[in-house]
Specification:
This protein is mainly beta. It is 7% helix and 51% strand. The chain has a single domain, classed as Porin.
Length: 462
C-alpha cells in the first residue's frame, strides 16, 4: 500500500506541476477576466421504516444472514460543496471540494466494506466522504472548434438523463467521480465526447487520490438533434474492475442509444436501449462470458393547456437476469457508470437496474409557479426467478416467485427563492410474494425525506 501511495503521489505531483505551469504561463498572457466562488449546502432529514440500505425487513437481516443496523432509522445527512474557479478566452479551471456526513444512521463505514480482511478491501460508503476533491480540473477551450474543449483532472461526468453516465449524487456521497482526460467535440447543439479515466472510492478515512480506484474505463457519448421529433444519443462504455470483488473482476463493454422527444405540449417519449458484453476474470477457473441487455421505455403526453399542465407517462424498465448460475455465461445486466438513485427505479431505492422489470405510471403536476408534484406507481418483478434481488443481493434457491412488490411515491419539489431548492417525498412499498413467501421478511416499508439545498454558485471575486 505504501508503494502504491508513493506511485499516486508521484503521478499527482507531476500532474499539478504541469497544471500550475500551464496556468501561470496562461495568466501572464491572458489574465482570468472571471474569477468565481461557489457554495452549495444540502441538509436532509430522513425517516426509514422496515428496511435500510443493507437489509430489507424489520429484523434487518442481510443476504448473508447477518444483522445490519436498524430497520427504523432517523438520520440527518449533510453535504457541502465549495471552491473557486477562473476563466479566460483560452482556459477555464475549477478547484472545488466536497464533504458529506451523517448523524443518527444505524449503519457505519464497516457496513460498506467490499472484500473485507483481504488485500482487495475498499469502501463504498453512500453516507460519508470527508473533504475530498470534487471538481479539480483544467479545461483547454477551442480545440477543434470554438465550442470544443479538452478537460484534465477530477470531474463530474453525466449525460442525458444520467441513466448510462451520471454522478449518482442523490444519497449523500457522490457515487461516480472521475479522474479523467475528456475531449468534447462540439458544434452548435450537437456534440461527441470521449474520455478515459478512473473512478474514486468512497472511503471517508482516506484521501481518494492516493487510494486504489475501483474502476477504470472509456466512455463515448454523443448528442444529435435530428429534428423537433427526435434527438439521438449514442453511447459506448468500457468498464474494468481494478481488483477482484468476490473472486471475480469485471471487464465489460456497453453500447446502445437513447432516443427522446421532450415537447411541453403533446407527445413525449424517452427510450434507452443498451447491450452489455465482455467477461468476468476469475481468480480460479476459466473466465465467465457476459451477454445481457437492458432498456427503459417511457411514452406519454403533455397537456399544457389543461389545469396544472399535467404530464402523464407510462413506462417499462427492463434489465435481464441469469437463469443458470452454474453455466459459463452471465446474463445479468448491470449499469455501466450511471445513476441508480433519485427516482429512476422508485424513490425508496429498493431496486436497481439489474434482473428487474418495472412497470411504471408517472403523473407530474405544476401545482404552483415553481412547485411540481410527482405521483408515481411501480410494479416490480424479477426477470429471472433464479437470479438475485439485485439491490440487496437476496437470492433464493428454487425460488418460485418473481413479484418483488409495489411502490407508491409522492414527491414535491419547489424553489421558493433563487438560492433555495426544497424537496419533500414519501414512499410506501408493499412487499410481494418473492419477499413474503420466501420469508425474507413479512413487513412493508416506508421512507420520508425533507431536503433543503442552499446554493450560491456565481459569486464573482474581485
Amino acid at each position: 500500500m505504501v508503494r502504491l501511495e508513493r506511485q499516486y503521489m508521484n503521478i499527482l505531483n507531476k500532474f499539478f506541476t504541469v497544471l500550475l505551469l500551464i496556468l501561470t504561463c496562461t495568466v501572464d498572457v491572458y489574465p482570468f477576466q472571471d474569477m468565481t466562488a461557489g457554495l452549495q449546502l444540502r441538509e436532509r432529514f430522513e425517516i426509514w421504516n422496515g428496511y435500510n440500505k443493507k437489509a430489507y425487513g424489520d429484523d434487518s437481516i442481510d443476504p448473508g444472514g447477518k444483522e445490519r443496523g436498524s430497520s427504523s432509522d432517523t438520520a440527518l445527512i449533510q453535504r457541502i460543496i465549495f471552491g473557486i474557479g477562473g476563466e479566460n478566452r483560452y482556459l477555464a479551471w475549477k478547484a472545488y471540494l466536497y464533504d458529506s456526513r451523517s448523524w443518527g444512521t444505524s449503519l457505519d463505514t464497516k457496513d460498506f466494506v467490499k472484500n473485507p480482511d483481504s488485500s482487495q478491501e475498499h469502501v463504498m460508503d453512500p453516507y460519508e466522504d470527508y473533504l475530498e476533491p470534487y471538481e479539480f480540473y483544467v479545461k483547454f477551450k477551442g480545440i477543434g472548434t470554438d465550442q470544443s474543449f479538452l478537460m484534465l483532472g477530477r470531474q463530474i461526468i453525466g449525460y442525458g438523463d444520467n441513466r448510462i453516465f451520471g454522478p449518482g449524487a442523490v444519497t449523500n456521497s457522490v457515487g461516480w467521480i472521475w479522474d479523467a482526460a475528456r475531449y468534447s467535440l462540439r458544434g452548435r447543439e450537437n456534440f461527441l465526447d470521449i474520455w478515459y479515466g478512473e473512478t474514486k472510492d468512497q472511503d471517508p478515512d482516506s484521501f481518494s487520490m492516493f487510494e486504489r480506484h475501483p474502476f477504470h474505463g472509456v466512455g463515448i457519448y454523443g448528442h444529435w438533434h435530428a429534428s423537433d421529433y427526435i434527438t439521438m444519443e449514442p453511447f459506448f462504455a468500457w468498464k474494468r474492475g481494478r481488483y477482484f470483488n468476490n473472486g471475480k473482476k469485471e471487464n465489460s463493454y456497453y453500447f446502445g442509444a437513447r432516443f427522446y422527444r421532450r415537447d411541453r405540449n403533446g407527445l413525449a417519449y424517452d427510450i434507452t436501449m443498451s447491450k452489455r458484453m465482455g467477461y468476468y476474470i476469475k481468480k480460479d477457473g476459466p473466465n465467465i462470458d457476459i451477454d445481457a441487455q437492458g432498456y427503459a421505455i417511457k411514452v406519454g403526453w403533455f397537456f399544457k393547456n389543461a389545469p396544472f399542465s399535467p404530464e402523464l407517462l407510462l413506462a417499462r424498465i427492463y434489465a435481464s437476469g441469469d437463469s443458470d448460475d452454474n453455466d459459463m455465461e452471465s446474463n445479468t445486466f448491470a449499469r455501466p457508470f450511471g445513476t441508480t438513485d433519485g427516482g429512476f427505479y422508485g424513490i425508496m431505492d429498493l431496486v436497481s437496474w439489474s434482473n428487474m422489470i418495472d412497470n411504471q405510471v408517472d403523473l407530474y403536476l405544476d401545482i404552483w409557479p415553481g412547485y411540481r408534484l410527482r405521483l408515481c406507481y411501480h410494479d416490480f418483478h424479477l426477470d429471472k426467478k433464479n437470479d438475485k434481488w439485485a439491490y440487496f443481493g437476496y437470492g433464493i434457491e428454487n425460488n418460485r416467485y418473481d413479484h418483488v412488490g409495489n411502490e407508491i411515491d409522492i414527491v414535491l419539489t419547489g424553489k421558493p427563492y433563487k438560492w433555495l431548492d426544497i424537496m419533500l417525498f414519501y414512499g410506501h412499498f408493499r412487499a410481494g410474494n418473492f419477499v413474503t413467501k420466501n420469508d425474507i421478511a413479512q413487513n412493508n416499508a416506508d421512507r420520508a425525506v425533507l431536503q433543503l439545498v442552499f446554493h450560491f454558485n456565481t459569486i464573482k471575486l474581485p
